[in-house]
Amino acid sequence: MKQVIILLIGISMCLTGLAQTDSTAKGNDNENDTIRVGGMIIIKKHKGNNNNDSSNVRTYHRDHKPSRISTNWCIIDLGFANYNDQTDYKSSAIQGPDGFAPGLGKDQFKLRSGKSVNVSIWAFMQKLNIVKGIVNLKYGLGIELNNYRYDDPILYQTNPTVVVLDNTRNYSKNKLAADYVTIPLMLNFNFTPHRKHGFGLSVGASAGYLYSSRQKTITNTDGKEKEHDDFDLRQWKLSYIAELALGPVKLYGSYATESMFAKGLDQRPYNFGLRLSN
């Protein structure tokens, strides 16, 4: 709505300027009329004499000058969450008497891809100009919310953490949620530094601190249940991250450097999706 209002004001200014130009006296036919609207310059050149008047209107767009520091507030990521499962399910750490998931295999940990989602809310992302707006340092602060939806009725038991297959109930929903406070740090390459919405690439790493984790289930017998525990998840998550800017459209992706579990399972999470920012 704000952009529409600004556009309407700009159009009104243009029309007002043109109307004033038409009503001026023709004492000096060679003078030009110049109107500035935001980053746009409109120049009306007058030609001719008393017998034959003509004019030429040209519109110029002023280049966007990259600032030393630029800040975006409240960026939202909407995407999908999954993991690369490299667990050795035949090992004693999984199948032994004190194993993490006895009797289970890779198939039981498969996710519902369309239902496993990642939503991140970045309080801010800031870009520090290093080389003429082409090379920048990009950093920020936000929270990552990851929901892993399971196909099979696996259940996390606590103290100690053991994963079992629960066939005694019918599950309509079964997910593991892991939420992090995250700081990203990237090297940004802006291929069109004089455009507000240009083309660029950012690569780097992020560090996330696990502040909340839980398993949420909905079954036919017990309804909705939530179990809050760390489930032996790592307290810290280090990830490789990247962002691709295609004009007004931004894509993001991340891949963890190691398993999200401190023991037992070797599942390395990754996210990808659409980044919404101004």
From TrEMBL:
Pfam hit, one: OMP_b-brl_2
Outer membrane protein beta-barrel domain: residues covered: 114-245
Keywords in alphabetical order: Signal
Signal peptide positions on this chain: 1-19
UniProt organism field: Niastella yeongjuensis
Protein name: Outer membrane protein beta-barrel domain-containing protein
InterPro entries, per database record: Beta-barrel_OMP_2
